[in-house]
Amino acid sequence: MEDLDFAVRYPFSSQAKAALDSSATQLNESIMFMGSERIKRGLKGESGKSAALHESDKINEIASFAAARMLLAFLNNRFITNKFAVAESKRVSSYLDSERDGATIAKVGQELGFVSEKEGDSYLVPIPIYLSFSPRALPYKLINREVRNGRVVVSPHERVRLMEEAVRKRLERVPLLKDPPKIISDAGKKLVSELPKSDLPQVQVKPGDYPPCIIKLLDSVKKHENLNHQARWFLCVYLMATGMNDEEIIGLYSNLPDFSERITTYQVQHARKKAYTAPACATITTWGFCCADCRIGSPIYWRGKGSGGRG
Fold this sequence. Notes:
Blueprint: H1 2-9, H2 14-23, H3 29-43, H4 55-75, H5 78-98, H6 102-112, E1 117-119, E2 122-126, H7 127-133, E3 147-148, E4 151-154, H8 156-172, H9 182-194, H10 212-222, H11 229-241, H12 246-253, H13 261-274, H14 281-287
Antiparallel strand pairs: 1-2, 2-4, 3-4
Helix pairs in contact: 1-2, 1-4, 3-4, 3-5, 3-9, 4-9, 5-8, 12-13
């Protein structure tokens, strides 16, 4: 039963696969429905913990994760896949935060290719692994970290955050499912037909109108990739300075996997009220967003460089 509980909490694990194999569970309408609902919850940003009590319910919940993955493979939609990956990774993070057994966390780490060694109240993570899974946020930049003998010192909370990123990146990799069984294709088409259509405007972006650092961020948004808080703030205040209104900015941000209209609206309106200005290129460079030698002092001056978009 303990292995089954582990499999429910971490359905990407080898224990989860073994649980499904031993149960001889077959795809059916009920499991496909559960898989679809799991994706819908992910699209809403919901990542609650399991309420399954009986063994059969736990098996079905594990199977719903597998069904969701097959649906995502059929749909081949990066936005939906990334939203699902974000929600599921946060769900895993909530479980890891509540784990009291260090061996269990280490076991999850092994499943993810994430290794760490406890030292005092901290953990040491090899640099290559740290770089693979560190969030794109200033506090996690290697230059700001303590490094000992090729290993990065992280707190218990940061260790879980790194593992959350490892889960997200793993779940974002979904192979294309060619010639799927009818039960999967039917469920996939039904799911798409039921998804809410956003009424937010989508902004058409002309690359030549923006400096390279902004183009890079906009490209990430277009690809439905997550941006950290600094990147979102920088992009927001820059677009405001160029005359874009709040509704257009919110519509652009609706492409992000963890988009929340309520939170984004508040943050955009707050930035507008405070009249923040775009930071200088020197600051942008320290944040890791600079990607060209424009020599314009601040990205806000780009609009004065001509419509050809050359700095």
